[in-house]
Amino acid sequence: MKPWSWSKSVDRRQHLNRTEGAILSIPVYATTQNAARLGPICSELSLAASTFQADKAIDKTAFSMLVPDLQSALHAATSSPYQVAIVGIESHICVTQTVLDLLADGHKVYVLADGVSSCNEGERGVALRRLEREGAIVTTSEGWLYECMGDASIDEFKAIAGLVKETKAKTTDAVQTLCKM
Question: Which pLDDT tens digit goes with each residue over 96-121?
Fold first, then answer.
């Protein structure tokens, strides 16, 4: 069974792979949850178009993605504290435990409300409200992208603005469906 509003959240993740990775050169890390039993990252999410930071997703059995292999990769790539944007499925389980771990370690965490889903519609809102109370910044993928850019004078702005315009209808649909808290 696919999580609630699966296609909308996957579309937002595809959009982010194109913008954050390919245009803004923001590193992308991915994990799988016990891939031997649950399978690999879904085929709809091609990580080739992003600045994916590993040969493959880091497999884990912990619900948090902040496992030793990912911690090592983050430490090697940048200095702490990190600014991290989180997307994923099961907002009330893996997303929540990852965000709580990152916050506990002192990092600035953005949860992209239009990029997280759950098997049960009601779980998302509960999880997002909790994470906001815990100190995460709950926002939309578009809001976060513009915050990353900070200024329309940067070289990447025209490419990002073009993608935002190109995906406006899908973004509107995703936000109207997924950003109800």
Answer: 999 999 999 999 999 998 888 888 88
What is the distance between the alpha carbons of residues 107 and 151, in angstroms, rounded to a whole number?
Answer: 23
- 179 phi and psi angles, rounded to 5 deg: -100, 25
Joined tokens for residue 52:
């994916």
Residue 94 · residue 66 · CB < 8 Å:
no
Q: What span, in angstroms and rounded, lies between the C-alpha atoms of 111 and 179?
A: 11
Distance CA 130, CA 116 (A): 14
List, edge to edge, every strand of the sheet that includes 83-88.
83-88, 108-116, 137-139
For residue 4 the two structure tokens come to 């609630």
Q: Report the run of H or E that residue 33 belongs to, with start and end.
A: strand 31-33
Q: What is the pLDDT of residues 7-44, one digit of tens each?
A: 555 555 555 655 555 677 777 888 888 889 988 776 66
- Per-residue pLDDT at 127: 95
